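tool_log.txt
---
The assistant was asked to compare two proteins side by side. It first ran the structure predictor on the initial sequence, then on the second. Raw inputs and outputs are pasted verbatim so the downstream comparison step can read them without reformatting.
(1)
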Amino acid sequence: MSSLLDHYRVLGVGVGACMADVTSSYKRLCRIYHPDVNSDPESEELMKKINIAYTVLREKFKREAAYRERVSHPRPVRRYSAPETRPGSPETRKTAVDPEKEAYSVIHGYFKAISAFDYSSAYDYLSAYDKRQVSRESFVEWRASVARLYPMREFTVEGKSTEATITFNDDKKLNARKYRVMVTEENFTEKTTSSGDVEKLVINEYGQWRVFLGYRGLYELTRTFDERFEAGRKRDYAKRFEEYYDSLNPEYNMLSLSGMRKAASREMYRQKRYGGTLTFAVISVKASGARAAAYDELLRSAAGTINGALRETDIPAYVGDGVFAILFVELKKKNAEEIVGGLTDKIRSNAGTKLGDLPNIEYTYASWSGGSFADMNELNKVLGKFSKKL
């Protein structure tokens, strides 16, 4: 029996995805792998797995919604008045709660609910001030959007806190305790984790300890998240651009051998995590007896033809000795032969008669889809036919 995590993997979504993301991914996969549009024999078996995964996750979200409804509207409990006790009596001392322990349990419960993706329960720990500013639905939607990129893996709340005072605009003051929390998050866009300290306040409101965020509304919540995401995106882009520039072959406007190795590793990881099709093609362009200058011109013409025919998602590289490697992302297996063969014909026709004799062009390729996943050894088998290796 497949685990719940396997169903998330089949649909290509993270464990923090909402029902809308699951449905969107399911529809996208149906458009790719449904037997009515995909003649691959493996598509029928894969479509069964996709349907099962979608059914299981849909029922899971229904159960969670029913549970949140019961928690939000509990059955009324009949209460009886307790016998009066004198202040300081043994009965009173037995039921007294340590403020430090109560405040700690509130902040711990809040982060535990977030790490379990139970954002409705996390909302219950918020102060009345925060609840007036942000509705339950808006809070849940905001936390879910954050988790789709940075789900929390674990957290540690420091046992000791520092005392503080919160002053509102109406000069109302409340006692507060400040906690430091070590949070470890996973980055779903790359296979990395990050840890850092965050400070959170717990205030004593109407005789109860509650988590105080102090945001003015959903606008500030989303703005804070957008700023954080944008900063991370710029950092990742700068890092990737630096890697790309370092491994770029400017003469052909393509990656070098080391650059293709990095790009292939990244795309193979994405295919294993999110599914899809990956095709690796190698084209060899030779011209026996040609002058060196004419041969260089032929290679530049071939590189221009390849670059002009590729989509934004495809990745080309010049690996030397007239050998070009191309990583086609989401190229259907049945179309690979047609695409690669047509590309070699274009290279031959664009070369013209500058070399006198027609160039000798060969190609080979391999595709992985459904339950098969590419790895570096498989790519090297394809590239090895022309005595090259990543």
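(2)
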Amino acid sequence: MNIPSPAACLVKVRNRLFPGFIAAAILLVSLASCPVTGAEAKLEKPAGESFFKGHRLTTFLDQETHRMRIELDEREIATKDDVTEIGKPTSQDLVSSLLYVIRVKTTSACGTFFIVRVPVSFDPGKSEVLPDFSACNSLVTTQTVKHDGWASWSAVSHRDDLATAQIALIQDEKLVRREVRAPLCLFVAAPQGDCIEAIVAEAAGYGERGTPTGVGTFGDQKIATFLNRSTGKATLELNGRVLRTFNNVQEFYLSSVDGANQFGLFAFFLKPEKDCATRPLLFFATKESQPEVNMDFGKCTKQMIRQTRTNGNVVEWSGIAYHLGDPQGYIASVIDHKLSTRRSLLPGCMMEPDQAIMQNCVQQALSVQGN
């Protein structure tokens, strides 16, 4: 007895012509009588799902074939065979991109990671997948650094019986993998932050500059900050060249970029090891001008409020650096493409945490004359 295949049976049923409701009823009965093979009856099961900022990442696992699929917004972006288990996807907001990390267990009992990066200006063809990171490596350390308008992420993977370590990082807006020599500091019970940062810096080719702590642009001008925690040296670069260096630094990063493409105002946070912090400013009046640098702005302040006002093509900026409890603060303004700074007595509302950020209090502070 010849049993027709499901596809042939379906074609045969479709070719029958019946009018109206009778056709529908006979079609259902006929389809029910069609054989279904094991391969076509098998259903692929969703293994995990993550909704994040308008995007949906879903993982699927076929328990019979051990094949894994990853979909982003219902579009397949990666597959892998010999998979027995898929962990729940985790997500991170990295300002200019979204990052998903998926832990996978294989039939050989090895653990591995799939890392997916999605640019904020999402184009389905531009999502990136880094497959099989840290394959069979049991020790993985991740690190995320965030500042206002900037973030970095990296992962270091190693094993006690290997002389090298795998590094995953985002460099030049791309997800990349590197392999470096594993230093001794990586094999202690809990590697310190400066050890991890040194490994990532070596993998990225930053060397003595240490790890990046901020990147910003104005026109063709590119500003980048670096900090080497092991040496305490901080570096400020303009277009790939060293503009300033600082020694004995505990913290240094680019905190904000303002100007709405009319001018470039870069603000930094600099904390020496044995002194209070300052908020250096670097200013480009136009895209063709040379930078002005003010290293002493906002000395010993903990907070900074910024505001930009636009009237047609005219852009004005102001900032207030202050410390709660100190009536003296710092005011910076950009008017007519000119940067001015002053130290000023602040209104009483600036001493109250819930009042200092209110618009009317900020306007009172900006209207006070400096001294």
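---
observation on (2): Helices lie at 6-14, 20-32, 38-41, 193-204, 353-356, 359-367. Residues 47-205 form one domain.
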